[in-house]
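Support case: user asked for a sample of complex input and structure output to validate their parser. Sending the pair below.
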Amino acid sequence: MIINAEQPGFRQEEVKKRLEKLDPETTYKVQRLVFYPYMIFEYVIDRRNFFHPLKGHVGCTIDGVNKVGALADTFPQLMKQEVSDRDFIQPDLTLADAKERAEDFLYHSLSSKKKILTIPKLTLTKQEIFYRPYWIVEGILNLPNHFFITVDAVSGKFHPL
Amino acid sequence: MGSDVIIFVIYLLVLLCIGLYFSKKASKSPDSYLLGDRKVGPAVTALSMQSTSMSGFMFLGGPALAFQQGWYAIMYAIGDAGGGIINLSVLGKRMRRMSEILGALSPIEYLEKRYESAAVRVVGSIIATVFLFAYVFAQFLAAGKALESLTGWKYEWAVIIGVGIIIIYTVAGGYLAVVWTDFFQALVMLLGVLCLLIVGLVHVGGLSGLNQSLSEIDPSYLSIWGKDYVFYGQWGVILGSSLIYMIGYMGLPHVVVRHMSMKSTKTVKTATLWTAIYNQLFAYSPYLLGFIGIILLPNLSDPEMVIPTLAYTFFPGIFAALLLSAVMAAIMSTSDSILMQAGTILSRDVYQRFIDKKASHNKMILVSRLSVLLAGVIGIIVAIVQPPKVFDLVVFAFGTLGNSFMVPYIAAVYWKKANSVGVLCSMICGGVTNILWTSFDWQSVTGIHPFLAGLIISIIAMMIGNPFGTPPSEPIKKVFEEAKGPRPLPKNIDKHINRDISPEAKIISTFIQNNIPVKG
């Protein structure tokens, strides 16, 4: 299947080096990539208010499985990529559902962060389903003592599995 | 018919309904019948474990000891109060994991698979069958006697009615019926004993009034060395009194099976909390009632009847009515678990292991039901006929089971190199020591409680025997490591974990484990 995917900022070797620098006692084996689904929506915001005008672009990503929203500063650089079924996670919501969630999330964020009471006008300019690559890494202390972590291949953030 | 008997009959009917409700679920597979599909939640695990552990002794023998010895008896309560918590904390998670990985359905089968030895299963089955039967006979006898004295029914009929109900719901509903009736019975026990304790304390002027009156009767009642300081300086006896219940439950197959049936390892944490709350409310109360008996019943001839006599003499009708059900709940909740375990060992560890290895699921469920029925019917006959030789075994039952199985169960998950020779030595020597120590009353000579002696010998035997055995195979070593659970991460990695991506990590983890598309 062909998907829209972000390009890894951290390659296999870089991930291994970074982790082994943090923890020299352990050997790290960077196994493979898993692609995680998100939906991104970009809006133009326009609030003509004499005291508190708001104008510009605002973006929101919705986690395709957990259905949680987050503010997005930039639209990701995406590339078409062919992956097999065992390498990507299918989203659990449609683009329409995600759009509804994104707008709810943005209205809520704007009203609480910008301290405004009236709802600004949001005009959708871009929407996309995309996949972010995550590395699956095995840490081997001394066999059979091992553990797994996942590393966000774009930001380099990691979390145990 | 008195109000107590009416409440008791209603109570029996509730138990029957619970048993019959689970009969369909129990018929699904041997796993369902023998272990409830390993889906028992924390509250039921905790409370059924406690009501199973605490037998009729809590309403009859325990208060009698408190009545005779004063505050020394509280050492047993301390053991009881901590026993469930220690049991869950030490064995809970690891035994749950290992039993599932090994695919063991009975605590004896678990030992065979962990120690890779049919001899362990044979010896384990023999010890467990003999002493579990002895234990269940004692419970049936207690059930009959309690019912006879509290209702006035003829002893034989009391045994047939009381035990008959247990057999019906256990045969029909299997393990799930046992744990759910035990859960219900734990609540009845708690309600019964707390009501009696509150009224009792009001009668003696609270805890301060109780101690004041005890010191006026005999100051030695307030000492931990027993009445007339009979155990003065004997730390082995004092320690053994607490240890027997604090750690002894880890050696009882019908109790440790609760670890194997838990829903998951996460159940342990909440179950421990439930156990802690329940035990602090329940464990001390029967002993405190024994102390109250010293003051309110100075001429009582049978100390075992201290709680029933208090209830019927001093307390309002409703509390006395509750008592019969509470006493029977304590006895029945232990009996059904032992009966279930005896049936499991007969069907799984004897029939399927040595007679018909390829028995189908349906056949195994039928054999399990017949085994429980057979064990129950033999129990009724023995409780009625009371052959003296059989009842000689009863006094050893708890201690022998505890001393035979505790070290093997703990070593199974904490000592990687533990092997079959070490375990056989430990089981046999621990059990035999308890029997000899009790039979020849070596406690009075050595000042060491039989349980403590059995425990020490059992550990020494394991250490001596183990070097002569074959080390565990590589697959078992791997199982041992897996049973330890997830390993902690290296410090520096743990420090830099980014919690922002934890929802994604959870999904990715499920995805790579199942290797199927994940849908939230």
